[in-house]
Amino acid sequence: MRKYRVKINGMTCTGCEQHIDAVLTSIGGKNIETSFRRGESVFELPNGINAEKVRQAIKQANYQTVEVDEISSQKPKNIELDNKNDYDLLIIGSGGAAFSAAIKSIEYGAKVGMIEREIVGGTCVNIGCVPSKTLLRAGEINHFARENPFTGLQTSAGEVDLASLVNQKDELVSELRNQKYIDLIDEYGIDLIEGEAKFVDENTVKVNGEKFSAKRFLIATGASPSIPTITGLEEVDYLTSTTLLELKKVPKRLTIIGSGYIALELGQLLHHLGSEVTLIQRSDRLLKEYDPEISETVEKVLTEQGIDFVKGATYERIEQVGEVKMIHVTVDGKKKVLESEQLLVATGRNPNTDSLTLSAAGVKVGKRNEILINDYARTSNEKIYAAGDVTLGPQFVYVAAYEGGVVADNAIGGLNKKLDLSVVPAVTFINPSIATVGLTEDQANEQGYEVKTSVLSLDAISRALVNRETTGVFKIVADAKTLKVLGVHIVSENAGDVIYAATLTVKFGLTVNDLIDSLAPYLTMAEGLRLTALTFDKDVSKLSCCAG
Ligand SMILES: Cc1cc2nc3c(=O)[nH]c(=O)nc-3n(C[C@H](O)[C@H](O)[C@H](O)COP(=O)(O)OP(=O)(O)OC[C@H]3O[C@@H](n4cnc5c(N)ncnc54)[C@H](O)[C@@H]3O)c2cc1C
Q1: Which one of 266, 320, 417, 447 has the fewest CB atoms closer than 10 angstroms to its CB?
Q2: Which atom from ligand 1 is nearest to the alpha carbon of 129?
Q3: Catalytic annotation on 1?
Q4: Rounded to 5 degrees, what are φ and ψ at 388?
């Protein structure tokens, strides 16, 4: 027997599920699990019945097969662990993707080596998620101490001792690095090899002159700040996200080149700690890949907080005079000079592939030097896999860890698992935070859906009213025919926590009515999901408490 997953368009109810089950049973299908909500069926077929037969049977029943995947043969074929090589899996990198792959591979019985040229733990714990989020929280507390929305509360903030905050942040980073990474090296029996890895051939890498061979490799080398080509920038003492998190003094003025999620988070952090902050971007619209309601709300709220934006800018040159950085731009045909004590470059991240001599191993890269992988996380060399930021997929640690796990299942477990990044939540941890999952309205239209949307301003949500922070928005994008929720987009306090419920909604094909019919605790921000669902047909401002 072989196991298949088939994606099917056109199922709208449990009757359709039964119909598909009957069709698959008629061609010999067993252990069939069909879900109209997920638009898929998983089942086993005797050897010899091929995917084409499945397609034909489903078509005859008037449904459309989107894709048929064999997800595993009857027994997973583990690679033969025969000690002929130094390692069964040799991983380059030691971040989220690397550790997830290492732990799962060891659970399969593999001997695993891990190579790291800098600090064990990679970006997230050392210079990314953890240090930025703990400092952002400190900034938020300072902001509320300076300006709180309640009458009768006398709060104030003194001068920020950034050196002390950074020391405290470093202690937390070191604690979490030990707990979540370094301690696991011995606990699982991973061989740590310190140094920079280069491929010698498809079976061998060299580290500090020593050669190591392996049956399979995982490249999980992450990404580093990308520095744009702007005249004069190379001669200027600029910051990246890494060095900004090490500043010991709050700069009076900070200018940021870029306005993506790292630029927004670090910009608001420094603004909350007392800097005057300006973000410069080439595009005319902030966060242009988001729904317009989201970008407009974010721009409004950050502008109200006192952060400046220079949009539609063309960079002329940058120079440093003494300590002052001068950024010469043209906006709407007019020349402008922005002067600041510190300059942050936050214009995305480039994959770390330069030092790997990938050509020696026959691993192909794309236009931005990212490693090209197929649906099984395999590179152009079938013994070599890649995962995480180095592939330039969604750059989040949970994506890197998920991909690392799939690599272990495929490279060591022999499972032939496909990566599924169809539903990836994304959060920007500013205040109010931005959280999104699924399709934007434009994407849904492009994919041919008849789209229905509901947009609810935060001032209709009780949690926001009692918090006295009402600038924000919830938006649901749904399929007009089935009312299936295709995307959820939020700007609110705690949006990052609310988005998990929305992720389940989108992933498991729940509908607007499912959200309406599920109780939402009053006074939570998550209630905004239910209220926005109700807003498809009702004016929620005319309803009583809890929209009852
Ligand atoms: C400021 C900032 C904030 C972020 N905040 C969040 C957040 O809140 N939530 C979230 O999910 N994500 C966040 N991210 C993104 C997240 O950190 C990354 O997506 C994730 O860490 C990528 O993991 P990875 O395993 O692919 O690579 P990494 O963690 O980058 O690990 C790669 C490792 O490979 C090593 N390496 C590279 N080349 C070689 C070589 N040739 N030989 C040996 N070793 C090598 C590197 O030194 C590095 O340690 C943030 C990133 C930044 C920069």
Answers
A1: 447
A2: 5
A3: no
A4: 85, -160
* Chain-centre distance for alpha carbon 496: 12
Ligand 1 pocket: which residues have CB below 6 Å? Answer: 92-98, 115-118, 122-124, 128-129, 132-133, 196-197, 220-222, 241, 262, 352, 355-356, 388-390, 395-398, 400, 429
Instruction: Provide the token pair at 123.
Output: 């970006």
**What count of other Cβ atoms lies within 10 Å of the Cβ of residue 349?**
21
Most confident of 61-70, 81-90, 325-334: 325-334
β-strands 433-438, 451-457: how paired?
unpaired
Beta strands 87-92 and 210-219, pairing class: parallel
Residue of higher predicted confidence among 371 and 74: 371
pLDDT tens, 213-254? 999 999 999 999 999 999 999 999 999 999 999 999 999 999
Ligand 1 closest atom vs CA 404: 25
CA angle 327, 329, 333 (to 5 degrees): 160
CA dihedral 4, 5, 9, 13 (to 10 degrees): 100
The Cα 355–Cα 360 span in angstroms is: 12
How far apart CA 348 and CA 341 sit, in angstroms, is 22
33-71 tens-digit pLDDT: 898 877 888 888 888 888 888 888 888 888 887 788 877
- As a three-state string, the secondary structure of 385-440 is EECHHHHCCCCCHHHHHHHHHHHHHHHHCCCCCCCCCCCCCEEECCCCEEEEEECC
The angle at the Cα of 87, spanning 184 to 109, to the nearest 5 degrees, equals 60
CA-closest candidate to residue 469, choices 146, 157, 147: 147
Atom of ligand 1 nearest to the CA of 387: 26
Out of 91, 94, 129, 356, give the residue to mutate to test ligand 1, the one with the largest number of ligand atoms within 8 Å of its CB: 129
- Identify whether 523 is preceded by a cis peptide bond (ω within 30 of 0): yes
Strands 324-331 and 313-321 come out as antiparallel
Given a cut of 90, is residue 473 above it in pLDDT? yes
Which amino acid makes up residue 204?
T
Q: Which helix (H) or strand (E) holds 313?
A: strand 313-321
User: For residue 7, what are the β-bridge partners?
Assistant: 40, 67
From residue 320, alpha-carbon distances to 253, 255, 338 in Å are 14, 13, 11
Identify the residue whose tokens are 């520095």: 227
SS3 at position 476: strand
pLDDT of residue 374: 97
Whole-number pLDDT of residue 73:
47
Find, among 504, 347, 500, 340, the residue nearest to 433 by Cα: 500
Cβ pair 224, 352 in contact under 8 A: yes
Residue 121 host element (H or E) = none
Helix runs in 119-256, H state only? 122-127, 129-146, 162-177, 183-188, 241-244
pLDDT in tens, 173-209: 999 999 999 999 999 999 999 999 999 999 999 999 9
